[in-house]
Amino acid sequence: MSAESPGQQNEHFLRVIKRRFRDWRGQRPFWAGLLTILGGIPIAYFPYASLKIGHMTLAMATTAGAGSLIIGVLLVTLGLTMWFHHIVRVFAGVASILLALVSLPVSNVGGFLIGFLLALIGGALSIAWAPGKGETEEAPGPSAPADGRDVPLVPGPQVGDGTITQKTGVHVDGGRNSAG
């Protein structure tokens, strides 16, 4: 018998998948994309849905069904764009907000306000999202030396440290002037 049982390997495998998904989710506006996708579904679905109550069929079909389908498909596409091309997240967020606003008059009051609100919040989250700093990254900047001296922000010899004794300036006519 081995020291490891198959159950432990599956648990480790699931833990690795969960960690990888959490890392992937943290590098992109995941919730913005999810809400935008969920907002596009009712906008595209309701104009084509029909509800049967006994022998009576209730249909919400409108003349703007094609427009609703286009808006819904575009919102789903923008949600996927937020996930897989997060560099264009601001464009996708603004486009989601505009499509959500257009869905109000076109698509049964924006999918009965459900799709409208989800797409609107998803677009706003996409615009507001900013990539976070990793746990191992440190903030850039000069570090103070151990003896307490100031560290110059520009590398090379500095005026006043004894290596540069003369300042040079540039005249308005382009000539160089030695100032002492």
From TrEMBL:
Pfam family, one: DUF6114
Lineage: Bacteria, Bacillati, Actinomycetota, Actinomycetes, Kitasatosporales
Keyword annotations: Membrane, Transmembrane, Transmembrane helix
InterPro entries to which the protein is assigned, alphabetical: DUF6114 (IPR046096)
Organism encoding this protein: Streptomyces tirandamycinicus
Domain of life per record: Bacteria
Disordered: annotated segments: 135-180
Annotated TM spans: 29-46, 58-80, 87-106, 112-130
Keyword Transmembrane helix: yes
Keyword Isomerase assigned: no
Protein name per UniProt: Integral membrane protein
